[in-house]
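Final report, section 2: Outcomes. Of the targets proposed, NADH dehydrogenase (Quinone) is the one most frequently requested by collaborating groups, and we therefore present its record in full.
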Amino acid sequence: MIFMNVVPIGPIHPVLKEPIRIKLLVEGENVKGAELDMGYVHRGIERIMEGKHYLKGIHLAERVCGICSYIHTQTFAECIENMCNIKAPEKAEYLRVVTCELERLHSHLIAAAVYNLAIEHETIGIWMLNARETIMDLLESITGNRVNMGFNVVGGVRLDLNKELLDSIYKKLDEFEDDIVNIVEAFQNGPLIGMRSKHIGTIGYKEIMKTRAAGPVARASGIPESDWRLRHETYQALNFKPDWRNEGDNYARMMVRHDEMITSIKLIRRALELYSECSGHVRTKAEIKGSEGEWKNEAHRGEVYYKIAITDGGLIKRIIIRTPTVMNLEAYKYMLKTCPTISDAVATYTSIDPCVSCTERTIELKDTITGKSSNYKF
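The predicted structure is given below as tokens.
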């Protein structure tokens, strides 16, 4: 007779970047399902934004996530620009692409490093982290900081580039590309990696559509149109084409990120070429009018969505943020069907590159007497 057992992982665990509790339901060593317990890093950041000026709001948006902090400020700024008919200068639009893609590189490198450490390939994991330092240096040289950069403003960006910095970016990108091509080749040809990654954590097209999974998780299962950069005017001007695969397993999800790193390098070079042809300022005056609107961008884990309502004075009446990990965690439960061992289930969790702090933003308040839940509306 075989008994079903629960194997708890977390909330504190060496393979987890952030605290979350995963309860794996196992039969012997075979994984049958999972429950996810969250709430360990809840901050209620959307509620904190209410009533604050949009200048403070963009400051808080950058703190939704520590790894993809930049894309949150870009989405916040572009949402208000779209609402209030504010046109950012062309130079600023290209600089946003450069900084966004640099952040995508550093995010994918962390995801790849954590995955390789999860499957016990420490060599490639450390190589990825070492390569990431080049990208972090570039982000610091462009924006003045490595993580919370404070680079975006409504109406453009804060800083311009000079000739010396432009030359330095090209030089470091060339060095980084050589390094990353060699590292990815080692990943592709590693027998241990293939054994631990191929046909593990597989999820198909139907399950992706059912869970509305986003980002590399969706594109690894044959859905290239999930990339919101296809709908962004600046990326359309750069002739952007998404990277995707069909296998839907751990290996495919990591290879999509590897392919996207090479694509990001090409996008940065092209954006810098077009930036060099532009003239003028990188910031325009923002005239804020009371309105509401929404905007979507392709964050490094997938679609990030902002819906904002503001007053004539620029105070935030209500803000809603949706991040991709919400959907990708649902997809994770389907991936467990092809995880033969507990260690494979852990590696599969890291393959979706979850961001717990992105996900835990709001809290539902329930009246214990009436049983009604709080419902904030625009």
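The chain is about 50% helix and 15% strand.
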